[in-house]
Amino acid sequence: MTAVAPSPVAVRLDPEPVRRIGLIALSTDLTSERDAARLLPPSVAMHTTRVPFENPTTPATLRRLADGLTDAADLLVPGLALEAIIFSCTAASATIGDGEVARRIGVARPGVPVVTPPDAAVDAFAALGVSRIAMLTPYLPETTEPMVAYFEGRGIAVATAHCLGLADDREMGRVDHATILAAGEAADCVGAEALFVSCTALPAIGVIDQLEARLGKPVVSSNQASFWRALGHAGVTVRGPGRLFDTPVAVPA
């Protein structure tokens, strides 16, 4: 057998070329990583870990996600700096609470900013000057109701709230664009200043510009808001879908 010899070539490492963002996705998530590929520039790398989840998507099952957050965060590129960590579940963040999500992730990655989709959406509405929204979710009514309560509790009036009645987030990840467009138009109303399309599983990124053109108002989706905020933590500005990406992000202290 041929002997293995050390290479005579000295190893050189590239200087750290990117800023890094962590993503904690549900084990059943089909969409967050795909949307990240569309939104993140080459100067930003995303590193994903998963947290166990079993459908149906209800408040009870979403609350159980909290137990896996610390272990999931501990798997995110240990030893390397992260600009932010996104917990990629809107309904779970609202159900568990932003503070508790951040606390559990912070046990494993102290000092790293934690981004939740509903909290990022509240920041997005503030940046856009919006205080009254229409809401579209893919969820069951019982899962949508805590979303309405969340935003109203944060000072955002919800003029209308429509849901598609799906219980499985893998089906939410396969809703076609025509459905999202039609449902977004149906959820909108005259009194709403913007439309919020909830759920990181819902593939809404590809229709935001079309929806804004049809409605004549801003459209904010869960993944759009999450990456907008995370990129703000990274100090990176990109062109993205919708009016939101034309709006500077005010990163919370």
Written account of the structure:
It is built from 11 helices and 8 strands. With 253 residues, it is an alpha/beta fold.
The whole-number mean of residue pLDDT values reads 96
Tally of contiguous helical segments: 11
Q: Structural class of the helix and strand makeup?
A: alpha/beta
Query: Mind telling me the C-alpha Rg?
Result: 19 Å
- Strand order of the main beta sheet, please? 2-1-3-4
| Quaternary status | single chain
- Beta content comes to 15-25%
Helix-strand pattern, N to C? EHEHHEHHEHEHEHHEHEH
Q: How far is the N terminus from the C terminus?
A: 61 Å
From the spread of the alpha carbons, the general shape counts as globular
Low-confidence stretches: none
List the helices and strands and how they pair.
Layout: E1 19-26, H1 32-39, E2 44-51, H2 59-63, H3 69-74, E3 84-88, H4 90-96, H5 98-108, E4 114-115, H6 117-128, E5 132-137, H7 141-153, E6 157-163, H8 169-172, H9 177-187, E7 194-197, H10 208-215, E8 219-221, H11 222-234
Parallel strand pairs: 1-2, 1-3, 3-4, 5-6, 5-7, 7-8
Helix pairs in contact: 4-7, 6-11
Give a quick precis of the structure.
With 253 residues, the chain is α/β, with parallel strands linked by helices. The protein is built from eleven helices and eight strands.
